[in-house]
Records
---
Amino acid sequence: MPRDTLNRQMNLIQDEILILGSMVEQAMLSAVEALKKRDAKAAKAIFLQDQVINEKRFAIENAIIILMATQQPMARDLRQMAAMLEVSTELERMGDYAKGVAKVNMLLKEKEVYMPVAEIDKMAEIAVNMLHRALGAFISEDTSLALAIPHDDDQVDELFNTAYNKIVQDMIANPNTIDQTNFIMWIIHNIERMADRVTNICERTVFITTGELFEVDGMDEDDLNI
Amino acid sequence: MTKSNNHYAIEAHNLNIFYGNFQAVKNVDLEIERNKITAIIGPSGCGKSTVIRAFNRMNDFILTARVEGEILFHEKNIYASDIDAVQIRRMIGMVFQKPNPFPKSIYENVAWGARVNGFRGNTDELVEQTLRAAALWDEVKDNLKRNALELSGGQQQRLCIARALAVKPEIILMDEPCSALDPIATLKIEDLMRELSQEYTIIIVTHNMQQAARVSDNTAFFTMDEDRAGIMVEYGLTSHIFTKPHDQRTEDYITGRFG
C-alpha cells in the first residue's frame, strides 16, 4: 500500500495528541485535588506545567503543518490533519482551564472559603472522563461514540447549576467572604467549559469520517430563554 | 436531432471508444460546463486522453479507433456523417504534452493557422492580440522573427496556446500541458488558463492531482474496470472531489492509496 510515510507520520502525531490529552486530563484532576486540599505548592506546580502543555501543542501544530506541506494531503487525509490541528488547540485551551483552577487555589492563599466540593469533584470527574473517551473516539474514528459523548455534558451542566446556586446562597449568607467565594465561581465555570470543548473534539471526529461540519449537541431550547 | 443545453459547451453521451477489439472507454456521460475549466484525472490507461481526443476527433487519425455514442457540440453529434472534422478542430483546439511549435518564426506560428482558415484582417494585430492573450507578448515582442524553437519550454507551450487561440476556438483541450515544464512555467500556464476561461471552455487531462485541484472548477475521475476499459467514476465540483469525494475509488486515488 502506498503512502506508508504519510501513514506513519499521522500515527506519530496521533500518539502525541493522546499524550497531550492525558497531560490535560491529569492537570485538571490534579488541580481539583490540590484545591480540595488547599495545597498551594501543588497548585503552583500545575500552573507551571501548563507551559509544557502549550509547547507540546505548538510542536504538534508544527508537525501537522510540515506534513501538509510535504505530503499534500487530500480528502480524508486533509480532513484528518485539519481536525488534528483543531483538537490540539482545544486541548491547549482545556489545559488553560486546569491552570485557571490552580491559579484560584494560589489566589485564595489561607483564606476561608465555601466550596461545593461534591459538585466540583463530580464535574471534574465527568469532564475528564468525557475527554478521555472523546480522544479514544477521535483516534479510532468512532462516529457513533463521538455523537453519544456530548450528551454527558447535560450532567455537567446540571451539576454546574446546583453548584452555582449553592455558591450564590453562600454569598448571600456570608457577604464578607464574597471576594473568595467569587473565585469558586471561576472554578465551576472552568470545568463546565472544559466539558463544552470536549464536544468540539467529537464534532471533528464526525468531520473526519463524514466530511460534514455541524454542532453535534445543537443548541438547547433553554439557551434561548436567557 | 438531440437538443443540447446551452449551459454545456460540449457533452459526451454514452461514449464508447474501441481500438480494434479492445474497449478503451466504456459508457461515459460527461457534460462540460461552458467557460469553466474541467480536469480529467485518473491512473495511466484509464482512457482520459482517449476521451479528450474524441472531443475534437483526433482519434480519426488512429485507423483502428472506433467511436460509439455521441458527442454533442452546438446541438450536433460531431461524429455525424455530415460534419467536417477540420472545422471541428478549428472550433475545438488542442494543446499537447510536449510543446510542438512549427520550426518557424514566433510570428508565423501564430499567423499561419489563421491564414489557412481564411483570416483576412490585420495579421499584425491578430498576432499581438493573441500573444497578449497567451501571456507571451511582453517576452517576445522585441523579436517576433525569432525562431520559435529558441524559446524556453514554457514559452513554447504558451506559443502553442497562442497558436490554438489564433483561430478563435470555443474550446481548448489540453493533454498534460505542463508535464514537460518546470514549476514556475507550470504556474504561469495555470494562471493563463484561469484568465482564458473567461472566454473559452477548457478541458485538461493531467496526472498531476495538485494541478487539477489548483486550476479546475470541475473534476472527473476515471479508472479502469475489470476489463481494463476506462470508466468515469465520479464527476463534480473540484472543491468537493478533493475534500470529500463520494466514491471510495476516488478517495483511494486522490489520497495516493490506489493500487
---
Amino acid sequence: MEVRRDVFQAIADPTRRAILVLIASQAMTPNVLAEHFDSSRQAVSKHIQILTECELVKQKQSGREIYYQLNTHKMKEIDKWIEQFREVWESKFNQLDKVLLTMKKQKK
Amino acid sequence: MKNNLLFDFTVDKSTKTVFVNREFDADLSLVWDAFTKQEILDQWWAPKPWVSKTKFMNFEVGGQRFYAMVGPEGQEHWSIQKFTSISPKTNFKMSNAFADKDENPDLPGSDWDLNFSEQNGPDNYRVTKVSITIKNESLARMEKMIEMGFQGGFTMTLNYLEQLLLKQKNH
C-alpha cells in the first residue's frame, strides 16, 4: 500500500518538530543532528527521511558532507493553510459584531 | 475602536487543538445570548456566503443543537452539538460532530470549551472576552472543519492542500 505523506502528520511528531527547530537556526550534518537526540542514529535518520519526503527538509551537498536545512517555503505553506481557518473565524466574528450592534440598539 | 479589540487565533498541531480569543464591544449578557440562542446564532454562525439554519436547539446540559450550514447552491452540511456543561454567562462545553440530515453523527468529532468574561478593553471601557478551545479527534477532522467553512467562499480551498499533497506524492 502506498503511504501518502502528509505534512501535518510529519509535524505532529515531537522529535520531528525538534529537528525542524534545530535546523531552522543552521544547516546540520546527520551526525551533528543525531548528537542532539537520545534515540539511535537510525531513528533520527528515519525522521529526517520523512521530513525530506514532505519537502520540509532539503539536503545540500557541501564537499563530502551532506547538510540538512529547513525548506522555509514549505513551512510557509502550512501557515497559509492555517490562515484560511483563521479567516473563517474572523469572518464569523465580524458578522457577530454587526449582530451585537443591532441588539444593543434594540435594547435602548 | 473596533480594530483595537483583541483577536487571536492559534493552532497547536501536535494536540490538534485550536485556540480562538476575541473581544466584543457589548455586554456579557448580550454576547452570551449570541452564542446560546438559536435565532441569534443563525445570524452569524456560518461564514458568508453560507448561512446557518438551526432545526432545533435545547440549550441545557444533555441538550442538543441540530443545525445545517447551507451553501449558496443549497448544499447542506449538518452538525450536532451536544451540551455537556453549562455555567450561565461564564462557560459552556459541547461536543460537536458532523451528521447527516437524519441526525446520525459522523464520529469522531471535536470538543469545545467556551469561556466568557468581562474585561477592561481599550480606553478602559468594558468589553466581553470569549475564549474558545476546540480539541479535534484527528487532523482529518480539522481539515473537514476548514472545508466546511470554506466551500465556495474563499480563494484558497482544500484543493490547494490536495495539490500540495499530490505534489509530494509525485516527487
---
Amino acid sequence: MPGVNTSSLPDIVFMLLFFFMVATTSKENDPTVKVESPVGTKTTELTPYKQRSEVDFLYLGKPRNPMRAADFKMGYALSLDNVVQPTVDGLYTTNVVGQWKRDKFDQKPPRMTAPIESVITCFKADRNAPSGLIFDIRKELQDIKGVGSMTIAYAVRDNGNI
Amino acid sequence: MAKREIEEINAGSMADIAFLLLIFFLVTTTMDKDQAYIRRIPKKVEVSKPVDVEKRNILAIKANNQNQLMVRDMIFEDPNKISDFVLEFYKMNEKKNDPTNNFPMYSRITMSAIDQNIAVIEGEIEQMEEAGMKADIVNFKYNQLDEWEKKKRALKLYGDNELPEIHVQANIRVEVQQATAYSIFAKMQTEIEEAIFELRNGECERLFGMPYSVLKRRYDQDKKAEDQAMMDLLEILYPARIIEVTPKK
C-alpha cells in the first residue's frame, strides 16, 4: 500500500497558523493582582477602542502574593501597568490615577490624535472587590485638572452569543 | 570545472516548524473579547443648592455592605428582578399619565410645538450674536437647537402626532456602599442595561421591523445618517440616565 502523500501538509498547517496569528490578541500584561470578572450581558465590545488604543485598563483585585494583602485597604490592590499601587485608603497626596492617565496619554503614538477625554478607562475588578474602591478611583478620574468629563467602563465577562 | 549540481534543501521538517509555531499561537490566543459597560462620569460642578427632584422621578437601586438589595424602599432577594422594576418605571405612565401613582410622568409633544421651540431658539441665537455675547453661551443655545432638531427628526420617524417623552428628571440611581461586592454592582448595571435594551428592542421591532441589536451593529459598521436618526428616536423614547452615587465613608 502506498503511503499518503503528505507534501501539502505544511500548506495546511501554515493556513491554520496564519489564522491563529491574525486572530490572536496578545494579553497586554499579566496583572499582579488576581482578577475574576463577574458575568453580565448586553455589554459593549471594547475591541474597536482597543484597536485605536483608546482604552486604558486598570486592575483591581487581591495581590497574587498573599503576604502583601494586609498592606491594602480591605485586602484589594490597584494595579496600573503591572505596578501594584500603595494603599488606596484615604487616597494619595498626589492623584496617582490621574498622573498615570496623563503619562500614558503623553506616550501615545503621534498618529493617535484623539483628546485625552476620549480615552476610556476600563475597570477590571474582581467579583468580590469592594465597590468603594471603584468609587475612590472614579473620584480621582473626576478630579484630574484641566480635563473634561471622562468615560469609564466596567468590565464583565459576557457569555451571551456575540 | 565541472558543473556541480545544487542539492535541494530538505523541506521535510518544514511541517514540524510550522506545527511548533501553530501550537504556540494556539496556546497564547485568547479569544474572549473585552466586554464592558461604558459610562460617562460628569465633572464636579459647584452648586449652591442641589436641584430638587420629585420622588416619583427617581428609581433608586441600592445594595448595602451585606449585598442585600433594595429598590424604592422595598427589600428583595433575587437580583434578576431589578430589570422588572426598571421596566415598570418606564412603562407605568407611558400610555397614559396617572398622577396617583408614584412613577415619572410622560410629556407628549406635537410637531407644531417643536417648530415653535426651534423658531424661538433661532431668534434668541440671532439676538445673542448681534449683541456679541460670549461664545459658550451661544454654543449652549446651539446645542439646545440641535436637541430640538433631533426631536423633530424623531417625531417624523415615529409617525404619530405626538412624541412621548419621559420626564427630563427621571433617572435611575445606583447606590452601593463601601464594601458592596463588585459583582453586585455589575449585576445592577447588567439588569438596567437589559431592561433598557428590552424597551428599545420592542419599539425597534414595532417601528422598523428589526431587532435593536441588528440596528446597532449596522450603525456601528456604516454610521449612516438614517440609522443614526433611528437610534436617536429610540434613545429619546427610552433614555438611559444612570446616576452612580458615591458611597459615604
